[in-house]
């Protein structure tokens, strides 16, 4: 019986991994295909489509997406840290209701949030904020619940006896936060910031309502290109974006060591 369950688990795991990776392999092959039609002949594969990515048509949106993602990551990390500290660590009055409010954007579809932000900016006379300022605002609203939840989860697991011991030894509030709390919650903080970076960089439903000519993010540029042409350049863009995201995740993990929070080990 145990052998049957083990075999079933391995087969299921293999099917799940295949379901996830096979589409990625198709995109990878398409990005080196010599024609718009996918060719599975290594002798004919080419990298010319990656060379096309060096034009300003793709570089400018990529740089804007990176800049936007970095700003959103920092702001979400800062706001999420402050909110989680008040709600999860200090447990301010009404902390349960405040946490529900902070997580409430998760229950609203992104398209609805995008329309609501556009209507809000236009009705209040702040229509000029459409573009990068509006994108930052929208992406922070999108990513903040994830950051707050992950940091709060890390803070719930902090042993407050450590804070009490530091207080007895004469450490002030700032020292206790800097030398005890922040190192303990660093994996949760950086895991939340990593989610914020990925969500902001890849976002379409919110961004499509808030971009303006000359300030278009990479995902929106891909959608616009897809309306008029379906060629391997799009596959090359997706492969390059995937490699960039993987590099960013690796960098965040090296700094924050958030895999220790997932596996329960130590860095």
TrEMBL record:
Residues 62-252 form the ABC transmembrane type-1 domain. It is a multi-pass membrane protein. One of its GO terms (cellular component) is plasma membrane. InterPro entries: MetI-like (IPR000515), MetI-like_sf (IPR035906). Its main location: membrane. It comes from the Bacteria. One of its GO terms (biological process) is transmembrane transport. Coiled coil: none annotated. It is found in: Cell inner membrane; Cell membrane. Keywords: Cell inner membrane, Cell membrane, Membrane, Plasmid, Transmembrane, Transmembrane helix, Transport. The chain crosses the membrane at residues 61-89, 110-130, 136-158, 179-201, 233-252. The keyword Kinase does not apply. Belongs to the binding-protein-dependent transport system permease family. This is ABC transporter permease. It comes from Agrobacterium pusense.
């Amino acid at each position: 019986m145990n052998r049957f369950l083990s075999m079933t688990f391995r087969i299921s795991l293999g099917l799940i991994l295949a379901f996830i990776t096979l589409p990625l392999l198709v995109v990878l092959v398409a990005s080196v295909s010599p024609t718009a039609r996918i060719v599975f002949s290594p002798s004919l594969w080419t990298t010319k489509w990656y060379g096309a990515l060096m034009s300003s048509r793709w570089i400018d949106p990529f740089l804007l997406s990176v800049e936007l993602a970095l700003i959103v990551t920092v702001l979400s990390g800062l706001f999420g840290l402050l909110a989680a500290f008040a709600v999860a660590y200090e447990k301010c009055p009404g902390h349960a209701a405040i946490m529900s409010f902070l997580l409430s954007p998760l229950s609203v579809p992104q398209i609805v949030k995008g329309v609501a932000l556009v209507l809000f900016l236009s009705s209040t006379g702040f229509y000029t904020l459409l573009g990068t300022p509006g994108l930052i605002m929208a992406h922070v609203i999108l990513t903040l619940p994830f950051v707050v939840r992950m940091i709060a989860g890390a803070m719930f697991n902090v042993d407050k006896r450590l804070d009490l011991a530091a207080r007895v030894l004469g450490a002030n509030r700032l020292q206790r936060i800097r030398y005890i709390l922040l190192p303990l919650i660093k994996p949760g903080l950086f895991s939340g910031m990593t989610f914020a970076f990925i969500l902001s960089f890849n976002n379409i439903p919110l961004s499509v309502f808030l971009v303006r000519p000359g300030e278009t993010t990479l995902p929106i540029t891909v959608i616009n290109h897809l309306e008029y042409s379906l060629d391997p350049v799009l596959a090359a863009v997706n492969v390059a974006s995937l490699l960039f995201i993987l590099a960013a995740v690796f960098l965040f993990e090296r700094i924050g060591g958030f895999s220790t929070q997932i596996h329960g080990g130590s860095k």
